[in-house]
Amino acid sequence: MLKTKKGGFIAAVTALTVLGASMASAEIVQEGNIRISFHGNLSPQRLPRKELAPVSVQMGAKIKTVDGEKPPRLSKITLDINSHGVIDATGLHTCPFSKLRNASAASARKVCGDAEVGHGNVTTRIGFPGQGEFSANGPLLAFNAKEKGKQAIFAYVDSSGKFSTTFVI
After folding, report:
1. pLDDT above 80 for 4
2. Separation between Cα atoms, residue 142 and residue 135, nearest integer Å
């Protein structure tokens, strides 16, 4: 589920299932003026029916408005797995938020590399009042973590361009 800063919900992007074959899917969801295109892939092609097996998940999304206006600021992303899926972090290292805050991508990997569970790329639009908008592109690194005693993943995003910035969500 995606939640915009204004409190509106953009629901049911896509539910990934782990029931059998490899899955590649694409879906476009529109609510009012907001359109989200989401794609995902799950591998391997065959999974056992009665025991757990590791899988690789790839996903991506684009958020746009139908009329070309600036979309509302995204404040939360929740990805759910179905009842047959299990996230098992047993034995994986964790990375505390404090080690990622104000780190470069290279230093984030240096101090938390043992906890890295994924990576990708992010392009965002950044705007400041009276200065217009510009694109920022950079790596996304996913680190296994604990937040308030619960299993979590910190997504570290380091963007470059006219204004370099780092986010950890």
Report:
1. no
2. 22
